[in-house]
Amino acid sequence: MEGKDLRKAGLKVTLPRLKILEILESSTTRHLSAEDIYRTLLEGNEDIGLATVYRVLTQFEAAGLVTRHHFEDGMAVFEINHGTHHDHIVCLDCGRVEEFMDSGIEERQTSVAQRLGFTIRDHSLIMYGHCRRTNCAYRKKKAS
Amino acid sequence: MEGKDLRKAGLKVTLPRLKILEILESSTTRHLSAEDIYRTLLEGNEDIGLATVYRVLTQFEAAGLVTRHHFEDGMAVFEINHGTHHDHIVCLDCGRVEEFMDSGIEERQTSVAQRLGFTIRDHSLIMYGHCRRTNCAYRKKKAS
DNA sequence: TACCTTATCGCGAATCGTCCGCAGCTCGCG
DNA sequence: CGCGAGCTGCGGACGATTCGCGATAAGGTA
Question: Taking the alpha carbons of B81, B85, B87, B91 in that order, is the dihedral positive or negative?
Fold first, then answer.
């Protein structure tokens, strides 16, 4: 049934695209890097190249299926679009990402853009801070 | 006189650092990439390596002299800190960047963070849209 | 359903932004 | 003015992302 989504987006339904879409949808972590997805594919014994993962993600982004985020650690992460917009707050200690939506902020953004003579198309709001989790003392290292 | 700023930041006053600081301060474009700065140095016949530019910019950032931004085009840009915090709105057509500050947005951000149990340290808000400039029809290409 | 056109894929190599390692050079305290 | 820590330039390394190309598969068509 996801094939419909792809077709609606003007993309051929191919195995790589289905698999990647599936991974994005079923992952517990909402934000995946291209490498994350590639690794998951390998674990599932799918014979899909890393270049294809990047190509597909770029196409998905253009089609509005996913959103690409650039958090502060250099590499892009991707997240499925489930219709509802939201912003992010990232813990600098453990790397956890929370999502939130504040209509007040959204409204003010629109009015600021209007005041400056911009037709707003998109925006990215990311806050960085420290969360109060008990187990959040450790620094998340790349090799987790 | 800028030497003072450097010394206060715990950095030796060296020629590369002074030159780079000068470029950041005098540029009409407020947001410069490492390459931009490097190119400017070359044009001024300064014998300064690209690696040094990156090192210096990183030190400046750590010292709070500049802020590093990641707009959507993959490479980092740097901006002098003149004390006042502000956010950005980027025109998707001409690449122009406007700055703004809205205390309402700032306040709501703080309260959202608090509600989520985060101690906020920093944030990045970037809006993308189309500006209404008359001469904004053209697309800014890398080779300008 | 078999065929044909064309988009897509996998692979390896290339590119891009950024950073590291090291030998030589400078800054600035004494 | 001399010395040592800190800085620099260079070239190469590095990770993330993209390109080029021959091989392959998707899906409209007859």
Answer: negative
